Amino acid sequence: xxxWEGGIRAAALVAGGALPEPVLGTKVEGMIHLxxxxxxxxxxxxxxxxxxxAARSLPHALPPVESVNVWQVLSGQNMTSPRTDxxxxxxxxxxxxxxxxxxxxxxxxxxxxEGRYKLIVGYIRxxxxxxxxxxxxTSPWNAFDDIQNCTTLGSxxxxxxxxxxxxxxxxxxxxxxxxxxxxxxxxxxxxxASRLWFNPxxxxxxxEGCIPPQETGFWQPFLP
Length: 224
Prior knowledge:
single chain; alpha+beta; Arylsulfatase, C-terminal domain; 2 domains; 7 helices; Alkaline_phosphatase_core_sf; metal ion binding; Sulfatase N-terminal domain-containing protein; ARSB
């Protein structure tokens, strides 16, 4: 996976008797984050999305729920989504690592702003395009070998790679050099989001987790 649109953009289907008849069979273009389904389902069920138990989980209290209720968009009451910004991946140690080490790690961070602009920072793998049917036999291609320099240390002096994903969903035109103030503005948002990112210590990697899928063909919970 990666932070290109091909790695994070997905389609969703909504059905059921709660949908007003005029919106049946229609398409919604508004931005919806994966986390927004939680707030939306809570609204439909008449439940407060605030997590009281999580708020009491000291000393590592969980941050407040950031899910946005998007029912008005899904039901056709409002064509403008309340979701405009969200952090995709926080800044990490790999985003500005120079040289071959960075290419090997391929770390990247990203932030979506104003419902259209996406800033990507780091050495980004899979920086290429393929046909509608892939893989095919036209020529061999290892997408992980295609790496784009979107760091803040680029030779052009620009900050990351900036794309207007509404007008350029294939991310072919980097706007960071022509819109430096916008790139800097979103980069500051990414810096703030990275500082607030909730990422507790999750323990050591447990190779035992690979045994069940090897034996059964299915990923499943396990006890180390």
